[in-house]
């Protein structure tokens, strides 16, 4: 998808503050992951995010269903998420907070 002569990935939605460290600025410009909590549906491999083979397709399906107009409650109950405890990036169960 393009916006003017830029693709969506190239559009700078929020400028990097001048006070940000140089490495963080460069990572933001390149669009690379700079650490922190790994998003559900991804894995961290050698400092980069890659789509997880188990949870990635679940996220893609849920996103498609939301865009098709289904309720989040229906998607959650259909997925069986209510019956399985949440896990973090390290496979630990329980609430992340």
Descriptive notes:
This protein is an alpha+beta fold. It has a domain of 61 residues. Helices cover 31% and strands 12% of the residues. The protein is built from 3 helices and 4 strands; from the N terminus they run ββαββαα. The protein has a two-stranded antiparallel sheet with strand order 1-2. It has a two-stranded antiparallel sheet with strand order 3-4. A hairpin with a 2-residue loop joins strand 3 and strand 4. Helix 2 packs antiparallel against helix 3. It is elongated. It starts with a strand and ends in an 18-residue tail after the last helix. The relative contact order is 0.08.
Strand order of the largest sheet: 1-2
Report the biggest beta sheet as strand number plus sense, adding barrel if it closes. 2 strands, antiparallel
Q: What is the count of helical runs?
A: 3
**Separation of the first and last Cα atoms:** 36 Å
Oligomer: single chain
The sequence of SSEs as H and E is EEHEEHH
Point out poorly predicted stretches: none
